[in-house]
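Team,

Forwarding the record for the chain on the shared tracking sheet. I've put the sequence and predicted structure together so nobody has to dig through attachments.
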Amino acid sequence: MEEIRSARGRYTLYGTSACHLCELAQEMLQQLAQVAPGFVYSAVDISDSEELFQRYGLRIPVLTDQRGRELDWPFTPDQLWAFYRS
């Protein structure tokens, strides 16, 4: 997994390539990146890891930060912004 940093730390979006909700979450993250300079994230396909699949399989998409906080779907742009700002 490629490590990416922002001014507020590292973010990871867990999902799968066949997940429509994950695509919606990625669109929201891309919109956030346009208004929050320095915000970047990495997307991880949980189907590549049994451990990640067991942890996130029924909850994807899930966004995590370097502090271990998790934002589960469904989330709104406002909730995403609040997660980023806190």
